[in-house]
Amino acid sequence: MAKTFEQKINRFDGGISDSSRDPAVGGAAMVKHFDIFSDPRKLTPHRSTENDMHDGTTSTGMKTYDVRHFTLGSNGNLYGLGKNASGYPKVVSKTAANLLTGNWTLNATAEGNAARILGCFIEWQSAFWFFQGTNQLAKWTIGSTVTNSVATVGSTITTVAHGIVGSDNNLYLFYNNKVVRVSPAGAVTDDVFALPSDMRIVSAARYGTYIAIGLAYGTGATQSPSGRSLVILWDMSSTTVPSDVVDWGEGELVILGNVEGRLVGITNKYLETAAGQSSLAVGGGSMVVKMWAGGIPQVVKEVVANQSVTQGRMLRDVVIKGNRLYWIASVPMNQSTSTESTYHLGIWVFGRKNVNSNFTIALDTIDENVDSSNFYINSFGSAGNYFFINHSADFSITRTNDAATYSFSSIYESQIFNGGDSSVLKKLIGITVNTAPLPTAGQIVAKYRKDEDSSYTTIFTHTTDNSLAHSSVNIESTGATLPTFRELQIRIESSGGAEVVGFSFKYEEVETRMY
């Protein structure tokens, strides 16, 4: 009689594992558009997004303004750096009272007088600060007017990083390889700290009483992720000598943030063919998450692509909330074709539930409204638990739905199961997916992929209201038997708000090795 085995999975807080063959409990080959932090034993789908583009005249009028760097102001209003018909900066906003239901406000006095420069938009001393033209530092005093040339910097601006407020209560802004200091009184000092001339500032973060400045090689407007990146610790008083220099390793450091008092950096390691670096990676590059709190930066997670990225991008926008770091990336993995559905574009997250949990990574939020022919996200930001996203070639704006609407598919793909031995042929006997009581619109689809398969086959689709589980011993749509396999992956798709609390499957050995 053939030996029968059962595999049970009821923990999901491991996020995306370093390898789809890692047998560690809780990991997955892919977890997308699920909340894996709130409850380690439940996959809770995120709400879908909805359009938020009404300019007071038309329902899609905000596309014209290409709003970037969504920022929640200290007064509770939401602000963004748009542009007017001349391509000049235009600050737009939504009031706190109408953040989710109201139209955008087009502030008539919030327009600059030179070309918009993206990369920096920060509130400081009741004003929003940004760069424009070729060398202008500008600010819009909230509710008042724009000062177009608070100062002019000494070099033509080619690259910009987001500004931060230092522990010394000064504002610090970054362009090229230069640091600009703005005092609370409004005094502006350019180039206050010497940095390597063959590098550019890509990101900065507070680190205790220091500013951590992330640097990558290259100084032009078009960059490639070659060379090694550095992180400079600066005490904000020295003009030439850093407090520490940290070698961040190979590739282009894109995002730097502080999570639980540790520096976390996200590196683009040869992902994009447009950078001309694909020959340095076999099949594709990787997105590397490193953490540092002294010593040598440690690789915590590395998401490896199986092909080069020709669509999508990694952005310098970053959100840190709940001791988690969120950013935009597109990483093709676990798939065999280069289509928009396999690029895994969206808002990624790195962090953990609490100090008793492990750090993990997941593709937290996707937006199915992104145009598949122009598959990219241009910018994002957050206001509380709501993400605001600028996407596609027409600069559409969507945000997290304020109603409990779950029209997107949340996806979990399991690790590769082989029963401990891929040489042994096995027969799938049955599969069960357990859920919280299935809501009225809830749906669960269970699929499998075996051995050399490049796509998944549907086993069942389940929609019974208030159901807690569904089991199947065949392909329900046709009655066909479940497959034999040497290696197996299970994919679970949730829509309509269905929460997954576990799944299991049984299999038996069809043949065993004779030695």
Molecular structure report:
This protein is an all-beta fold. It is 0% helix and 47% strand. It contains no helices and 44 strands. The strands form 12 sheets. Strands 1, 36, 39, 42 and 44 form a 5-stranded antiparallel β-sheet that branches. β32 and β33 form a beta hairpin.
What is the radius of gyration computed over CA atoms, rounded to a whole number of angstroms? 25 Å
> What is the helix content?
under 10%
**Main sheet record:** 5 strands, antiparallel
Helix/strand-derived category reads mainly beta
- Overall spatial form: globular
Number of helices: 0
**How many strand units?**
44
Provide mean pLDDT, rounded. Answer: 92
* Proportion of residues in extended strands: over 45%
Low-confidence stretches: 274-278, 336-341
**Spatial separation of the terminal alpha carbons:** 19 Å
